[in-house]
Amino acid sequence: MTGTTPATDALDLAEAGSVLAAEAARFAALGWMRGTSGNLSLVLSRDPLRLAVTASGRDKGELTASDVVLTDGEGAAVGPGRPSAEAALHARVARLTGAGAVVHVHTVASVVMGRRSPEGIPFEGLEMLKGLGHPTHEVAVTLPVIANSQDMTELGDRLEAALTPGMPAVVVAGHGIYVWGADPREARHRAEVVEWLLELAAAGG
Fold first, then answer.
1. Contact criterion met (CB below 8 Å) for 171 and 145
2. 114: exposed, middle or buried (C-beta count within 10 Å: 0-12, 13-18, 19+)?
3. Is the dihedral of CA 132, 188, 202, 154 positive or negative?
4. Between β-strands 49-54 and 39-46, what pairing exists: parallel, antiparallel or unpaired?
5. Phi and psi for 86 in degrees, rounded to 5?
6. Could you give the CA distance from residue 189 to residue 181 in angstroms, rounded to a whole number?
7. Which backbone phi and psi does 109 adopt, to 5 degrees?
8. What does the alpha-carbon distance between residue 162 and residue 19 come to, in Å, rounded to a whole number?
9. Which of 47, 141, 181, 189 has the highest Cβ tally under 10 A?
10. pTM of the entire structure?
């Protein structure tokens, strides 16, 4: 999906909406997008940067293909609809990491561990780390934790400063996790792995 003209973007947006609706339903079923919480995005083009972002205020377990908004590289809407308030952070992650999809979910374990380990959450010697792209379990990585902010520029600055090699995710304290990947499937798989790691840490493992 690389549309750069309005007509192509419209076609891509409908396709992206179907993909994101299915992903959101899956996360909602896991209890990670309760109420209207959380948001997802999918990059449609790189030059100029355009993203499909889930619309603001929608029940994530009931999204349809039309419940997405086209945004520019700063997270501002291009056309009708109101994207999630955090669309700017999705766009920033896409610019910084080259990600094709970003997942933001609200999980209990991420809040627990963000409070317990505000300096970052270390993991070592776990087979599940291979799910983040590591060739072996014999690695040590840290999941960054950053302070929350309602200012997406400030939050983006914190995320940029905290980016860690080998860890495509960050915990926003008292809020949830952002995870990214090359496409929605990889972003979902990585989100599932990161949440597993957080649940293990929260359980004292």
1. yes
2. buried
3. positive
4. antiparallel
5. -100, 15
6. 9
7. -60, -35
8. 29
9. 181
10. 0.91
